[in-house]
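I'll show one example:
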Amino acid sequence: MSSPSHQTFLRPAVLIGDETDHNLRLAAQAGATDLVGAYPGTELAALQASCNRAASFGLKLTTIERLWPHDKIVHNKPGRAQQIQDTKTLIRNMGATGVKILCYNWMPADDWSRTSTETPTRGGSLVTAFDINAKEATLDSGAADYRGELPEDPTSAEELWCVWYTGTLLRSRATYLGAVPH
């Protein structure tokens, strides 16, 4: 009797804010197999270099998350068409390099906003937090690298919901029609 074939169910992945040699080596030593990387830009060579660097530590770059410029898409602002084209290029580059997951969000700003990065919690560990009554929020590290200034004419909640709903509706219909894999 032959043994049943086993498919890997879970691959431990890690998102590292500062991808130093030291941190990548620690991730591999801790048992991570996959790496979640930040947006590498639209050049195929940059994404391939990120894949090669991860591989040199025994990791596989499987996901792009964080710092992907899509604020003009979310806010339906001038420059939206270019960001859509850049996203298409990114997805093609991901296909060419075997990076299978693009983690996207429709938050009004790119990454999470926080008012604290040192809020104590269970066991004395520190976590990030957001308090709507705090005077200032900070963007995740590097989020301002491409975003520049916040818009002078902020998008209303109604407009954000309209853009989100329209995108969700179009995605649902495209999936139903077989244009987008489930």
Notes: The chain is about 35% helix and 15% strand. The two ends are 36 Å apart (CA to CA).
